[in-house]
Amino acid sequence: MEQTRPKPNRAPRWRQRKAASRRSELHGAAQLQNAASAAAAVAAVPSPPSPPTVAVPNDTLEFSELGKNGLIHPKLLDTLTKDMGFKHMTPVQEATLRPLLTERADILAQAKTGTGKTVAFLLPAIQRLVTQDQKPGASVSLLVISPTRELAIQIADEAKAMLKRFPQYSVQTAIGGTNKDTEESRILKSCDILVATPGRLMDHMETEGTLCVMGKLQNVQSLVLDEADRLLDMGFQQSIKKIIKALPRKETTNRQGVLFSATVPARVKEVAHLALSQNYQFISTISEGEVNTHERVPQDLVMVPNFSDQAAALIDTINHEIEKVGRESFKAIVFAPTAQHVEYYAEIVKRTFNDTLPTSALHSRLTQSRRIRLTEEFRDAKNGLVVATDVIARGMDFPRVTNVIQVGLPFDKETYVHRLGRTARAGADGRGTLILAEAESYFIEREIGDIKMRARDADLRAREGIIEIARSFTFGKSSEEAQIKVYQAWLGFYKSYARAMGWDTKRLVKEANLFAKLALGYPGVPPLAKRLVGKMGLKGVPGLNIESDTRSKGE
Ligand SMILES: Nc1ncnc2c1ncn2[C@@H]1O[C@H](COP(=O)(O)OP(=O)(O)OP(=O)(O)O)[C@@H](O)[C@H]1O
Questions:
Q1: Is the CB of residue 300 less than 8 Å from the CB of residue 431?
Q2: Distance between CA 35 and CA 456 in Å, rounded?
Q3: What digits encode the pLDDT tens for the residues 210-248?
Q4: Which residues contact 183 (CB under 8 A, 6 or more apart)?
Q5: Whose CA is nearest to atom 11 of ligand 1?
Q6: Which residues are bridge partners to 527 per DSSP?
Q7: pLDDT 10s digits, 489-527
Q8: b or e along 431-442 (b: 16 or more beta carbons within 10 Å of the residue's beta carbon)?
Q9: What ipTM goes with this model?
Q10: How many other C-beta atoms lie within 10 A of the C-beta of residue 214?
């Protein structure tokens, strides 16, 4: 069994108050009839962090009801109530647990971010595992597919916590960025629950022979697609299809299928049949007409004239938010479009705040071990800031995040909502800020026009200091190389949005060069390798500094 990370006190004790209530780096390459009442929102007053109880509406059923009816094993009930400190079910748990446990229904479930979907899908599958007549470790009973490695690890940790009183069962992960052979031998040795990312699972499936991971997947009783809409996005859809096709037929194993997400766009319903039976139930704890964003999460919109003003607006936003929550409690996630943007903003924040604000950069270009370490550090941190791409936009449960700040265009509305969902989780308070350049303003009207945002003007005086920092970047082999990489990443990212912003390629290059000068302090036009010019479809566009050598390696 993989080493279990000790579970941090995941949420403080909260005072409950009911109120009426109502989701890439990955994108760079690409939401149930209501059985319970709509989710109740709760405001929170933080106090000491243990025991780990979380505000959930107190008009939902208690987990003990499931125990009384013999629907869950007494040891599982003890784990939930005594070890994890849960008493009442969250609305999505109340709505889905009974059909999942009693009818073994196939379910497509939608509930707001941070409302306990993980326990909702793990509990029925674990109940099945611990009551089935099968040698522990012999074959995978629950297969969970997750869009990101970080989320897969988090789900596996939650499953391990739920199996605390059943040490004979093992939970394994199949994720990229780790040694495949070691991973395979761990799974082959003993695995009851496998949490996998689609790409790595496909890799394992392609390994021939009886002693392969596929051999362990011949008796899967429960299949869960978490963050289903993300998984079924371009790129992953084909993998998911192949994975499901490689499993024994659903009818022969009576496998239960569950799809969960905070956002369920039409395309998910179109492909739900891949994993679910024809007569699956659609359960939503978001009432009709509700906006799937925490209405109670105040969201600011900071619009700046130019792209080169965004970093200064970020610094101003951090200062503004620290003033509201206090430096000791300020714990924020800043989302940025590309890995290079992440490095850029992280260094600016670090140096502007002279390391008084613990800051890290998280994106998929880091080694997996570093990604895991940074994720765990941020989960346990009392305060600080992580600048990240969408690798942590979905599902990640970092306790006490007070702020989510998004700089630049989110991929779409779902991305905006899922990113925002990293704060105000399980009844806590939180705030959101979106920082856009005027050219990006179309996003507001076209994508998130129904979300209430408060416009705030930012003080952009930090600009000068930012240029100085950019001239002496430390994240590349040289500051010049770092500047060039950020420029190239900027160009590559905004190339995809040029049409939406009403730009032709000439204007795109002009704006990129302006960004290089005013945001990066680069003297002149940064070079762009010939092959990248072709790749970006910018051949013949005036204003580029094309170089034929291999000095600049692009995004
Ligand atoms: N019944 C419960 N009572 C109290 N806390 C709970 C309960 N169920 C889950 N939690 C806690 O609530 C937090 C959020 O849960 P979880 O991460 O499963 O949310 P989610 O709905 O999957 O969010 P996202 O949409 O972001 O993926 C976790 O810390 C979890 O341990």
A1: yes
A2: 39
A3: 557 888 999 999 999 998 888 876 568 888 888 998 898
A4: 172, 173, 174, 175, 200, 204
A5: 116
A6: 545
A7: 999 999 999 999 999 999 999 999 999 999 999 999 999
A8: bbbbbbbebbee
A9: 0.98
A10: 18
pTM: 0.77
Which tokens belong to 306?
């130019």
- Compute, in angstroms, the gap from residue 426 CA to the centroid of ligand 1: 6
Tell me which of 59, 88, 90, 94 to substitute to probe ligand 1's pocket, judged by most ligand atoms within 8 Å of the beta carbon: 90
DSSP labels, 422-453: TSSGGG---EEEEEEEGGGTHHHHHTSTTS--
DSSP 335: E
> Burial, 218: exposed, middle or buried (Cβ in 10 Å; 0-12, 13-18, 19+)?
exposed
Backbone phi and psi for residue 327, each to the nearest 5 degrees, phi listed first: -60, -35
DSSP 8-state assignment for residue 37? P
Distances, alpha carbon 512 to alpha carbons 91, 390, 502, in Å: 47, 23, 15
Number of alpha carbons in the 13 Å side-chain half-sphere of residue 113: 30
C-alpha 500 to ligand 1 mean position (Å): 36
Cβ-proximal residues to 26 (8 Å cutoff; 6+ apart), any chain: 147, 148, 230, 233, 235, 364, 390, 391
- CA-CA distance, 143 to 7, in Å (whole number)? 22
Which residue among 115, 158, 380 has the greatest number of ligand 1 atoms within 8 angstroms of its CB, and so is best to mutate?
A: 115
For the chain, give the number of residues: 555
Using CB distances shorter than 6 Å, the residues near ligand 1 are 10-11, 54, 56, 86, 89-90, 93, 111, 113-119, 262, 395, 397, 421, 425-426
Whole-number Å distance between alpha carbons of 387 and 367 = 16
Q: What is the whole-number distance in angstroms between the Cα of residue 115 and the centre of ligand 1?
A: 5
Residue type, 483: Q
Both tokens assigned to 309: 């003003």
- Report the helix count and the strand count for the chain, using DSSP H and E: 22, 18
